[in-house]
Amino acid sequence: MKGSIRPLTFSALGIAAVLVIWQVLAEAKVAGNALPPATTVFSTLATILGTATFWSSLGATIGIALLALALSAVAGVILGLLVGTFETVRFATLAVLEFLKPVPPIVILPLAVLVLGPTGEMSLFLVVFGCLLPIVMQTVDGVQSTDPVARDTARSYGMREPEILARVVLPSAMPYIGTAMRVAAPAALVVTVVAGLLGGGPGLGQSIYQAQAAGDYASLYGMVIVLGVLGLLFQGATRLAERRVLHWHESYREVMP
Amino acid sequence: MSIRQAPSLSTRNRKSAMAQQPETRINATTPRLDVAHLAKSYGSGEKSHAVIEDLTFTVDAGEVVCIVGPSGVGKTTLLKCLAGLHPASSGRAAIDGRPISGPPREMALVFQDYNRSLMPWLTVRKNLVLPLRHLKLPAAELKERCDSALAAVGLSHADNQYSWQLSGGMQQRVAIARALAYRPEILIMDEPFASVDAQTRFDLEDLCLKIRKDFNMTILVVTHDIDEAVYLADRVVVLGSKPARVLKIVGVDLPAPRDQITTRSLPEFARQRTEVLSLIKRPV
Amino acid sequence: MRNWLIGAGAPVLLLVAWWFLSESSLDPFFPPLRTIVGRFQELWLFEHFQSDVLLSLGNLFLGFAIAAFAGIAIGFVTALVPPVRWMVDPLIHFLRGIPPVALVPIFISLIGFGTQMRVTSIALAALFPTMIATVDGIRGVGNDLMDVARVYRLTRRERVLNILLPAAAPQIFSGLQVSLQVAFIVMIASEMLGSSQGIGAMTLLAQQSFMTADMWAGILLLGVIGFLVNVLFSLLRRKVLSWYIGSRRMARAA
After folding, report:
1. Distance from CA of C154 to the nearest CA of A (A)
2. Is C102 among the domain residues?
3. How many CB pairs under 8 A join A and C?
4. Are residues B63 and B200 in the same domain?
5. C189 domain-assigned
6. Which of C11, C89, C106 sits opposite A224 (nearest CB)?
7. Of B108, B134, B182, the CB nearest to C158
8. Which domain holds residue A11?
């Protein structure tokens, strides 16, 4: 018991120290009005939490991120199974996938805004663009890692290809897909915010942009804090979901980086 | 390199490779390694859990002593206390009469898991060099130490390879060579040959005896293999569990030089191993 | 052989198809590839090369370098000094929950729109992945390795530089790779949000003024940079971690 109290004390001290330093620096006006005191930020945040606008942008952010995530998951797994199963398709797409993999969605943001306008569809498109590829590539890796013995066994029992795909290949690719989803979920939130901040899509990103443009720094800081908490919730939820769904898998622990 | 005039305990002529410590007087009653009433427990208060309770034995200069006992008896804990990695809870462990409070300079340790104790990012030679860097030796001596250590274990050809490119037995040779290049006076080995195949095991056992002869080293080996202990040792310390304590110290009286085939087929060898085995097997 | 032909042929075919299908395009959003390539040459080779391309790349590398060094250094201190770890742990976890790009408006409000703001944003946002990976890497270093270091009486400096750093290197490099991606994203975002200079700013300006071909040229350039930077990093990783990659391959084969 005694051992766990010390870390907690230090954690509390750390947080308290940061808050105090923040407050002192802000009171001293080191950055003019651009750094509002912690107390002001938290009281502003409390006010914001009471407004309907805030909850609707929060809802928009979460809604877009989750919808895009679901779309990416379904499309990504199907595409991944396709690419991973047929060698010709895999080689034909290899160069394009490898080129696009390190290109973040923010690169095509101007194009998306140009064609779709500052809309929810634009945000959705960007998030899917960002999440789809990692899921496809992880699924391909998962398909490739299927034990050939298991595949041959299934074939010798007279299973047909679609059945093998669903019963043997997909389950053994699951840990890879799980890893991809764990990475994709926080990324979906990030891209949704970027699309709002830079492209004017609905949600908290847009609210941050408006707060900054209007010089409403207390709201700006408040929104960023909300995003931090939201990000943590997203990470926690995906970890939990992954553990729930994949706890049965023997190779699950190995796949964890 | 000066040859230390140590009043010899054993009949062997000690020509210590390093260590010029005239201030450490060794007299006829001081063993190299002295363990007296050593105890080690983890945790404190009511939850404390004794791993070792009251161990007493000595290792004389130039001797090979094997510690045998059932697995999980706390042999590794004992070695970590002797190597100065863990402090003892009570009792004492001393080198040449000096209590061990941290890793002693004159001691080297060969670990059981060669693949977890060699640096995978270094080549074989650089693995040997790493412990020597802070000694700031002249380049020629550094090279000579590594060359002779690698030659002693028969790995002169492999010095530019990474350890993970070698077989398990060869990796354990690298670990032994690293210890040799460090020029210790006391070599401690923790189940050194437990994870290699039988043939390699025989080779490494003979390597161990050759090192004792060539470098006149004091060697302490922990093993769970009774045959190995009898084959290698001048004396065998038989441990019982739990917590660990000394059941008996068995003097092994087999002629030198020892040989895997002739020594192991001696009636005396069979008698000694039966004695050790019956001590371990005896219900306690 | 056939597979490699397909692999090399498919992207070429794609580009050729794009070239000819867009040849007579009048769609304002999708101009002919010929026009895009033309504008690419005029804009980036080399009229705006120094003023914008080098500026962006300079910010990217400076910010990333600061993030890398600071991330590894802070990671070491955090991992090796428990009180520091307890103190910063909750803060780190909170800060990494924030989308890195969302920090840019705060830095704009604090530092303004200059180069300094952009480098600061990049460095701070890219710091966390490296730092967290460094902490994880050090904590994952095996006890046996540290026992070896103690038995052979390595100095503290040797333990840090010759044992912990290389042993944690594989994880540090994973962190650095993520940091590099974050740095690239924040580079673009910081230019799009508050600047008239840099590739991101030029691309967004082109979009806002409906100079579609210029925008496409910017997107192409950013895509190529993102790809090349990643390739360079992978080459560096392969060189530095050749021992790790080799030993992993060996372990898998066994």
Report:
1. 30
2. yes
3. 163
4. yes
5. yes
6. C106
7. B134
8. 1-35
Check CB contact under 8 Å for C243 and B162: yes
Residue B84 contacts residue B101 (beta carbons within 8 Å): yes
Q: Is B117–C148 a contact, with Cβ atoms under 8 angstroms apart?
A: yes
Residue C1 placed within a domain? no
User: At a CB cut-off of 8 Å and minimum separation 6, what does C192 contact?
Assistant: A106, A109, A198, C200, C201, C203, C204
Closest C-alpha to B100, from B59, B129, B66: B59
Q: Hey, CA dihedral for C154, C159, C161, C165, is it positive or negative?
A: positive
Range of the domain at B227: 31-106+186-284
Q: Is B111 on the interface with C (CB under 8 A)?
A: yes
Minimum distance, in Å, between the CA of residue C126 and any CA atom of chain B? 27
Domain range enclosing C186? 38-253
Task: Answer yes or no: do A1 and A70 share one domain.
Answer: no
**All partners of chain A with 3 or more CB pairs under 8 angstroms:** C
**Chain segment B237-274, per-residue pLDDT in tens:** 988 876 777 878 888 888 878 888 888 888 888 888 88
Nearest to B116 among C145, C247, C250 (CB): C145
Closest-CA residue to B177 (of B210, B199, B200, B201): B210
List the Cα angle B131/B132/B135 in 5-degree steps: 125
Shared-domain flag, residues B93 and B233:
yes
Residue B164: inside a domain: yes
Tell me, yes or no, whether B134 and B264 share the same domain: no
Is the domain of B157 the same as that of B259?
A: no
Residues A17 and A57 in one domain: no
Q: Which residues of C touch B186 (CB under 8 A)?
A: none
Contact A201, A57 (CB under 8 A): no
Residue C214 to chain A, least CA–CA distance (Å): 11
Q: Output the pLDDT for position B112.
A: 85
The reported pTM is 0.86
Inter-chain residue contact A227 with C106, CB threshold 8 Å: no
User: Cβ neighbours of residue A157 under 8 Å, at least 6 residues apart?
Assistant: none
Closest CA–CA distance from residue B83 to any residue of chain C (Å): 7
Q: Subunits with at least 3 CB pairs below 8 A relative to chain B? A: C
Residue B209 lies inside a defined structural domain of this protein: yes
Is C85 within the bounds of a domain? Answer: yes
**The two three-digit tokens of residue A82, written as one number:** 């396709």
pLDDT in tens, A119-130: 999 999 999 999
What is the tally of structural domains in chain C?
Answer: 1
CB contact under 8 A, C247 and B162: yes
Q: Which of B84, B103, B116 sits opposite C144 (nearest CB)?
A: B116
The CATH number that applies at residue B215 is: 3.40.50.300
The chain A residue lying nearest C91, using CA atoms, is A15
The answer to whether A96 contacts C14, with C-beta atoms less than 8 Å apart, is yes
Q: Does the distance separating the beta carbons of C83 and A10 come in below 8 Å?
A: yes
Look-up: residue for tokens 């590539």?
A: A137
The pLDDT profile of chain C, 254 residues, written as one tens digit per residue, is: 777 888 888 888 888 998 888 888 878 888 888 888 888 888 778 677 777 888 899 999 999 999 999 999 999 999 998 888 888 888 888 887 888 888 888 888 888 888 888 899 999 999 999 999 999 999 888 888 999 999 999 999 999 999 999 999 999 999 999 999 999 999 999 888 877 788 888 888 888 888 888 899 889 999 999 999 999 999 999 999 999 999 888 888 76
Indicate if B41 and B176 belong to the same structural domain: no
Q: Does the beta-carbon distance from A231 to C109 stay under 8 Å?
A: no
- Tell me which DSSP letter residue B123 carries: B
Is B100 within 8 Å of B82 (Cβ atoms)?
yes
CATH number at residue C113: 1.10.3720.10
C147 and B131 in contact by Cβ < 8 A? no
CA pair distance C205, A108, nearest whole angstrom: 14
d(C-alpha A113, C-alpha A118), whole Å: 6
Preferred mutation among A13, A30, A109 to probe C, highest tally of C CBs within 10 A: A109
pLDDT band at residue B213 using 50, 70 and 90 as cut-offs: confident
Say whether both A29 and A151 belong to one domain: no
- The mean pLDDT of chain B is 82
Residues B39, B176 share a domain: no
